[in-house]
Amino acid sequence: MEQTIRPPRGRLAVLMPGLGAVATTLIAGVAAVRRQLAEPVGSLTQMGRMPGEDGSPVRIADVVPLATLDELVFGGWDVYPDNVYEAARKAAVLEPAQLQALRPELERIRPMEAVFDPAYVPNLHGSHVKDVRGKAAQARALMDDIRGFMQANGCERAVMVWCASTEVYTQPSMVHQDLDAFEEGLENDDPAIAPSMIYAYAAIRCGVPFANGAPNLACDVPALVQLAKRCGVPIAGKDFKTGQTLMKTILAPGLQARALGINGWFSSNILGNRDGYVLDNPDNFRTKEVSKLGVLEDILRPDLNPDLYGDMHHQVRINYYPPHGDNKESWDNIDIFGWLGYRMQIKINFLCRDSILAAPIALDLALLSDLASRAGMSGVQEWLSFYFKSPQVEGGARPEHDVFRQLAKLHETLRRIGALEPADEAGNEAPAAALAAAATH
Amino acid sequence: MEQTIRPPRGRLAVLMPGLGAVATTLIAGVAAVRRQLAEPVGSLTQMGRMPGEDGSPVRIADVVPLATLDELVFGGWDVYPDNVYEAARKAAVLEPAQLQALRPELERIRPMEAVFDPAYVPNLHGSHVKDVRGKAAQARALMDDIRGFMQANGCERAVMVWCASTEVYTQPSMVHQDLDAFEEGLENDDPAIAPSMIYAYAAIRCGVPFANGAPNLACDVPALVQLAKRCGVPIAGKDFKTGQTLMKTILAPGLQARALGINGWFSSNILGNRDGYVLDNPDNFRTKEVSKLGVLEDILRPDLNPDLYGDMHHQVRINYYPPHGDNKESWDNIDIFGWLGYRMQIKINFLCRDSILAAPIALDLALLSDLASRAGMSGVQEWLSFYFKSPQVEGGARPEHDVFRQLAKLHETLRRIGALEPADEAGNEAPAAALAAAATH
Amino acid sequence: MEQTIRPPRGRLAVLMPGLGAVATTLIAGVAAVRRQLAEPVGSLTQMGRMPGEDGSPVRIADVVPLATLDELVFGGWDVYPDNVYEAARKAAVLEPAQLQALRPELERIRPMEAVFDPAYVPNLHGSHVKDVRGKAAQARALMDDIRGFMQANGCERAVMVWCASTEVYTQPSMVHQDLDAFEEGLENDDPAIAPSMIYAYAAIRCGVPFANGAPNLACDVPALVQLAKRCGVPIAGKDFKTGQTLMKTILAPGLQARALGINGWFSSNILGNRDGYVLDNPDNFRTKEVSKLGVLEDILRPDLNPDLYGDMHHQVRINYYPPHGDNKESWDNIDIFGWLGYRMQIKINFLCRDSILAAPIALDLALLSDLASRAGMSGVQEWLSFYFKSPQVEGGARPEHDVFRQLAKLHETLRRIGALEPADEAGNEAPAAALAAAATH
Amino acid sequence: MEQTIRPPRGRLAVLMPGLGAVATTLIAGVAAVRRQLAEPVGSLTQMGRMPGEDGSPVRIADVVPLATLDELVFGGWDVYPDNVYEAARKAAVLEPAQLQALRPELERIRPMEAVFDPAYVPNLHGSHVKDVRGKAAQARALMDDIRGFMQANGCERAVMVWCASTEVYTQPSMVHQDLDAFEEGLENDDPAIAPSMIYAYAAIRCGVPFANGAPNLACDVPALVQLAKRCGVPIAGKDFKTGQTLMKTILAPGLQARALGINGWFSSNILGNRDGYVLDNPDNFRTKEVSKLGVLEDILRPDLNPDLYGDMHHQVRINYYPPHGDNKESWDNIDIFGWLGYRMQIKINFLCRDSILAAPIALDLALLSDLASRAGMSGVQEWLSFYFKSPQVEGGARPEHDVFRQLAKLHETLRRIGALEPADEAGNEAPAAALAAAATH
């Protein structure tokens, strides 16, 4: 029996909970790229290269069969009723003149009513929410939304990428441990089931891959992993790896490569967008903090290198600072030591743009999740760790944070997928087993 | 016929042209480490780990048979007559109290008279130079020095690491193209033969591996590569990869991994040590500048990625600024662009210590050059690129600058060497061919 | 009747609650300066100049009759029993070798037992505290300490400078409103009377000037101002103006001078000394935050310049970060706008040393408070605002924060004092009225 | 005899040699302000306040009678024929949409042909130059331009502000020493007479005040000072004090106020506009460097404070870096020392906009030069030092660099001018003597 991959025929729905700064920057950007007004910089699937068979760089789209930008149809949910043009203007990421040129196209995209629970995002007070009582009923309403959107837009396939706000910090409890308990919890309106989990549940149930761009759990609970495997759906998370953490996962392996010691890494951020406002709530920040703090330990392994990293103070601060809007700025102070313990310092000031860095990641995750789905892969896609601050892994494995090892694993998986035979007309699916092995090792 | 490696039996002479800041920091540091007063941080051979057979990290000294620090005997040449204690005090890298504790041991090491040509380092005016006319005679005097030092100190083997000042910028000319022309040039006192080349020639002729820590050519000319192969001697260069360029070769691959564009990279340095003083001369700076500028182009490949890197302005400035002494400080401004071409900036301020970063590199190169020699490897050791700003390669190959690929190549070669059988008592050498292949690919 | 000033005859006791980093750096420094091992840089009274009568710079000690360093006798109280040598070693501000050279002299200075209330500094757990119940009794014990110290050390005069930790945030309440209420509160052990107030009360009652280096209220309550006036004692506060706030009060007037607008000023600090540890408690930080936040508003006057400063976000963060010890580091991001509202940014990274900046301020305040006392000045010394983050003023006046105006007022007052006639042998005091006018306008 | 000031009746021509980034930003900005599309931030005359009689802040326009923006008529000369709209688009300082809104008004302003000498600006190759041989004839042609412009635009008065490129470094020679020599030099085409001097000569001869925004000599030679006095014309210079030097003259007085020592101040700049391109020529840079270097010495007086400033290394670098365009960025490293000589560092990164900072200075100088002229002041206006990096002074006086003292002098002079009686209908002028005294002390 041969392994095969379904070709990317037909339109692909890209559905996003949260039509805020990231989602509207993505949607407007793809519109601009389609009209050749701009380039999709930062997107590996569109602009990146990987080493080909002979080592020379080849475009990723030449290695694996990806959906093209022309085939994407964007939609989503939001707690505010603004259409994408209005939301993009408020997000103030892209220049007004640029948005103006795309206005009619963007105005046509209106959010569906959101499933929302203020207990999970106390700082937001949206009104555009479903008038549906009960989490099970909310899940069904979302499934109706998904199917309705696909039908209305003539889509063959769909993917869901969580672009909404960070929810308050929670840890998995009994209700998340297996699918039965979870579905019972939905019926019972268990408060431990967050809105993001209801979205993830609805997506997976519909056979739609789910990728989580925020640090809250969403699909990162055993019940939903189980469901994803049962339904043959790929899932991935958590938390888009953008500015500061991206830099950290680039730099830390470099310092480690040189056997330089680290005794402190202080990271501060200032940002003024809706994300910053939500994170101004300590419980929501806690979710983000946990996501950001794990990075160094996993790369540097103080347990194995106590002389170099055993006494490392790692702190992360996020400050809501309105004057900067979406122009997130990070400042890192890294205290390192070298030969004989002599101390040195590295200061990094990154004047980044949060959504400009996140949008191409959301795009790549949409296209690669769809690719995985067509290749018959299901469950946690560890090979997509490259894109996440806090990579979801299976069964207590140690996540890989080193961006260069993540990239190597991404390339390796793409190469394996690229070697699959296309499925024949009848569209028989590829067996998942071998690929899953490729993706999780 | 089996491949073998000679074990590191007996004492190893580490001979350094230039007993300045780097060399004295190395010598004092090894003395402190031997007495367990400090740790050799920054040295991969002493503190680093690499993935072992099962992927878990192992110490490098457990993979390959390295000379131990106890077996090292340090010596060198300098244009100033100061002993190592005095020179270290003037260099002002290590704390006076620390040097005081090692004083007797350091005072015993006195430089041999240097081969020096003021035309190559106009800003230095040393007096402790050999009173020998003619470059051929100078080469012979150096060979006498090497053999004399080894005999006097009971050394079985030796390595030479260039730790002296950067010479003025020159490009290879006819006299460097083959060994006959070079040796004729020595006899004729050809002005195109720099002192560093005379040292390299003397070392190789004596069967002593040569590693070049400065950006001047030294062994990076066809004549000396030819000699190294003929004599079965490993050579490597150029220019210790310390602060700013190290950061560059860490960061650039990371930005590239994310398909982020770069339109400018401005690098400025301030330093106040002897190195800075020498580089204050434009002709000497030119040598350094060429070494530092090549890095980005080779990593980012603007030829293949013109949309992302085709319009990149890369500038490097070095400023002699006495207040900072050896505390070199770099400041980088990196202008990047992401999604739709939106611009962002990264600023890096590295408060480093030049010699603290360089000393462990010199140590590693001494030990790994000796390792290569015992493993029968000769000619250019491209697998040591990890340590160099401007890696010497053979025959027009493209140097590898990406620090993570350099590290992978280093690991791979160490693994191959680690798999060699020890040579038997008779000490028959390992055939170089297979290893050379490993090292240069 | 003529105005006179008593000459600085005899020894001056400098008594400090809190023999921690600042106090020990001051004491060790004065010891080093006396032996000509170092210079009292940062002290205006020792190294600074002011415009003389003809505008050309003259030394301050040539303008007014100051006590000399040789006449100072240091003492203090602390919750830890370490002598000054031990405390200075733990504070790790000065180099061990430097402290070693002064060791016998520093070891002789041992703290008296402190008046301490853990409710005011929850993060400290000192044991070297007075076993005296009741705040009135504690005040009497401190007065005994003061008189005992002066007698034992043959001191003619004394000053007290608060160098202890920041207490938790409180606002003045009824018990602070007049002296009777305050003294009744002492008798009743009113919880709103902080230890710093007991010290201030004891000092003033003894005729000893009091200066407050921390942001807690201490003498900044009506009851103690009343007492100071009644007793003819000068007082001053609050909070030594060191690193970041110093920079702020230098820069803000400069930006304002150019009519440049500001829409955000974000200030972050990392420090790892005891001060940082205490401020890690939110209630203690609140005291500091209030002290630091008032600065900009008073300089920029958004009420008068709403177009330029009406929408300014000012945030201050302090992070306890042990790797830096006393080497406090601040990072400021200032968002300014110019012509037509175009935006620009200023980033300031100050790698300072907290106690190195604070010690000379404590010295100047000791000497200038004594000067004021000899000149017959009493009550709040607004002319010492130059030294404080949050200058204590009288009766609801607006504090002056602009460092250049503060300096002008300091100079003006010194000039007036310098013009006083020396008191005759009988030591009759100068009338306070005219001087108080000089000092408070 | 009463002192009087002529009221600002009628239109004022503002003539600028160099219609580049600064001039077009000024012209477009004033157009935008007139239409209430933006605010003239950074202009003291428009937005600033000064202490009024009772100390409370008052608007400067309420203190002295200034020309209003509605009365200004802009014109100038350039070596390129672009109209102001085109030139502003190329300068890329203001946003395209903003310029578009002002387009017709800006297109109407076309440069007159320039007097240009490539020997003074080797990097520029303009074609829009006068076809007039001989410097005397060129001066006459400029005078014709001035009078023609005033007549054509119905202007009562005019001022000239040099906004053109920095000329190569020269020092005053014999031909500049007195007016006769200078005028003879004009006739003889003396190569030491720079184009900027011809402009200044023409302006002064026409009774038009001249202010010099670049560091080249222009009116800063005895001959032209003599002419200015003889003709009763105010002149001022040199070099608009914008980003880095502004910061320096703010910070240095602050550090000095605290008696903190400085042993190094390293200043680097990157900029990519035409100014940067011109300064890429070492001879032109030399002019700028001299202007920028004098600042610290005059403020800190190492001669009087050798312990604090006697060993200070001050370096300034300017790097032409195209990616930043007009967004000049400076980076300063300041090495300071405090108590006992302990070292600290301040790093300042100023992301400024060159022309945004310069345009309001040019505006203020135009209005204040006109004010001075109406008040009968002539010769060097030292009270305008506030605006200049390298203030022109008379007769070997020491320039004042401290921005706070400069501001005080500015305020004082404005107060004196504000106290003048308006001239009566007949328009009799104010006597210059008393005012000149105010302005030069």
Automatic annotation (TrEMBL), chains A, B, C, D:
<keyword id="KW-0472">Membrane</keyword>
<feature type="domain" description="Myo-inositol-1-phosphate synthase GAPDH-like">
    <location>
        <begin position="243"/>
        <end position="355"/>
    </location>
</feature>
<dbReference type="InterPro" id="IPR002587">
    <property type="entry name" value="Myo-inos-1-P_Synthase"/>
</dbReference>
<keyword id="KW-0812">Transmembrane</keyword>
<dbReference type="GO" id="GO:0006021">
    <property type="term" value="P:inositol biosynthetic process"/>
</dbReference>
<comment type="similarity">
    <text>Belongs to the myo-inositol 1-phosphate synthase family.</text>
</comment>
<feature type="transmembrane region" description="Helical">
    <location>
        <begin position="12"/>
        <end position="33"/>
    </location>
</feature>
<protein>
    <submittedName>
        <fullName>Inositol-3-phosphate synthase</fullName>
    </submittedName>
</protein>
<dbReference type="Pfam" id="PF07994">
    <property type="entry name" value="NAD_binding_5"/>
</dbReference>
<dbReference type="InterPro" id="IPR036291">
    <property type="entry name" value="NAD(P)-bd_dom_sf"/>
</dbReference>
<keyword id="KW-1133">Transmembrane helix</keyword>
<dbReference type="InterPro" id="IPR013021">
    <property type="entry name" value="Myo-inos-1-P_Synthase_GAPDH"/>
</dbReference>
<dbReference type="GO" id="GO:0004512">
    <property type="term" value="F:inositol-3-phosphate synthase activity"/>
</dbReference>
<dbReference type="GO" id="GO:0008654">
    <property type="term" value="P:phospholipid biosynthetic process"/>
</dbReference>
<dbReference type="Pfam" id="PF01658">
    <property type="entry name" value="Inos-1-P_synth"/>
</dbReference>
